[in-house]
């Protein structure tokens, strides 16, 4: 509350007329809002990116995002009750809206990543560009690896096995065999063995496709974890610096 004293002399009067001007500087104390509304929101917003770190088989990825969104909605209602109505949105209100938007996008991306994870064996193979860019370069950059695989090295890409002919590729011998118990005379048995081998190879190829989609989902989880965690941290630090 600075004060300024002035002494004025008017032409009609010989005596001076002093006056004192006080300037009142009003500032709202932000400690109560920081402790009761801002810090809980910061901690909850830092929990939202951890949905990308949960394994998809746990079944709690979407539940965590929805729980964080409900918690932010409750704090938003408390904020609306404590703040006076005005045309301009305060800083803490902008932070709540930005955080809820980020949590909504992270929950939607989590649902898409779970769809990638649960692609069954009947799904089509991973596209070539995704295999090269995501499973190759991005996986090495984010250190997404299989068990026992060193960081920075990706698993070699395997080509699907070529189908075997129905007769197992067996050729008749040049000299006919005269033994009745020889396997060359068991054509039906050889066909059944070839069918079982082809079925096994098809099952292995389907399992490899399923593992590729699961690995792609893990790469996308790690990528969006870094992006959303950085966004939440930067927004929280900016708001705390401006509030304090």
Automatic annotation (TrEMBL):
Bilayer disposition of the protein: Multi-pass membrane protein
Superkingdom to which the source organism belongs: Eukaryota
Keyword terms: Cell membrane, Disulfide bond, Glycoprotein, Ion channel, Ion transport, Ligand-gated ion channel, Membrane, Receptor, Signal, Synapse, Transmembrane, Transmembrane helix, Transport
Sequence segments annotated as region (Disordered): 149-172
GO CC annotation terms, alphabetical: synaptic membrane
Residue ranges constituting the Neurotransmitter-gated ion-channel transmembrane domain according to the UniProt record: 37-149
Statement: the UniProt record of this protein carries the keyword Cell wall biogenesis/degradation: no
Transmembrane parts of this sequence: 30-52, 64-83, 95-114, 223-243
A Pfam short name: Neur_chan_memb
Single GO BP term: chemical synaptic transmission
Reaction it catalyzes: Mg(2+)(in) = Mg(2+)(out)
GO molecular function: extracellular ligand-gated monoatomic ion channel activity; transmembrane signaling receptor activity
Claim: Disulfide bond is one of the keywords in the record: yes
Subcellular localization, as worded in the UniProt entry: Synaptic cell membrane
Protein name from the UniProt record: Neuronal acetylcholine receptor subunit alpha-10
Organism field: Leptonychotes weddellii (Weddell seal)
Organism classification: Eukaryota, Metazoa, Chordata, Craniata, Vertebrata
């Amino acid at each position: 509350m600075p004060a300024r004293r002035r002494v004025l002399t008017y032409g009609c009067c010989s005596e001076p007329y002093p006056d004192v001007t006080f300037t009142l500087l009003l500032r709202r104390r932000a400690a109560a809002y920081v402790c009761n509304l801002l810090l809980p929101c910061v901690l909850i917003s830092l929990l939202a990116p951890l949905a990308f770190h949960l394994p998809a088989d746990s079944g709690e990825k979407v539940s965590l995002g929805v729980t964080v969104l409900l918690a932010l909605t409750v704090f938003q209602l408390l904020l609306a009750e404590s703040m006076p109505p005005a045309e301009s949105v305060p800083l803490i209100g902008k932070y709540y809206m930005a955080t809820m938007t980020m949590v909504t996008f992270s929950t939607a991306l989590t649902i898409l990543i779970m769809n990638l994870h649960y692609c069954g064996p009947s799904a089509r193979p991973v596209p070539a560009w995704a295999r090269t860019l995501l499973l190759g370069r991005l996986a090495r950059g984010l250190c997404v690896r299989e068990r026992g695989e060193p960081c920075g090295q990706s698993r070699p890409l395997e080509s699907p096995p070529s189908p075997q002919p129905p007769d197992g590729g067996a050729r008749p011998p040049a000299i006919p065999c005269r033994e009745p118990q020889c396997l060359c005379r068991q054509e039906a048995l050889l066909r059944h063995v070839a069918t079982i081998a082809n079925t096994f190879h098809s099952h292995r190829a389907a399992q490899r496709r399923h593992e590729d989609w699961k690995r792609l989902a893990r790469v996308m989880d790690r990528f969006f974890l870094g992006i959303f965690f950085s966004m939440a941290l930067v927004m929280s630090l900016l708001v705390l610096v401006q509030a304090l």
